[in-house]
UniProtKB/TrEMBL annotation:
Record key words, sorted: Disulfide bond, Glycoprotein, Immunoglobulin domain, Membrane
Name of this protein: FCRL3 protein
Pfam family, one: Ig_2
Membrane topology category: Single-pass type I membrane protein
Keyword Glycoprotein tagged: yes
Keyword Disulfide bond (UniProt): yes
GO biological process, one term: cell-cell adhesion
Source species of the chain: Haliaeetus albicilla
InterPro entries cross-referenced by the UniProt entry: Cell_adhesion_signaling (IPR051275), Ig-like_dom (IPR007110), Ig-like_dom_sf (IPR036179), Ig-like_fold (IPR013783), Ig_sub (IPR003599), Ig_sub2 (IPR003598)
Compartment list: Membrane
SMART domains listed in its UniProt record: IG (SM00409), IGc2 (SM00408)
Domain of life: Eukaryota
Gene Ontology MF terms: cell adhesion molecule binding
Amino acid sequence: LQLHHSGHYRCQATVGHVFPTWQESALVMVAVQGVPVSGVSLVAQPPGGQVAEGDRLVLSCSVAEGTGPLSFSWHRQGSAVPLATGPYYKLRTVRHQDSGRYHCTATNGGTAADSPPLWVTVLGEQDPLASGAL
């Protein structure tokens, strides 16, 4: 059952064998209600959001409840401007600049909910000039 199934319905039937006649029920209004989006979660691969510089990072977003169609957007450091859309955010080659706090937002057009934030930490050697070590 989906939202677009809302509308007026009635039942029709034939009665009698020799001289069949059509009979109709009263008109009934059926209103399909949407389930608000809730229980948004974010999972990282590799787990925990710690990834070596140059490796791949995949973040996936899912919802516990909510009628669709669902859409997803990805955000970093609390920015309202999305990094990407869709249930997955993939970084093929992470860099130190990719470290930070990420979250996804799920919406069904009527309601929206955010996942808890996930801290992504990129591990690996930094440029000694950038860190002031020299």
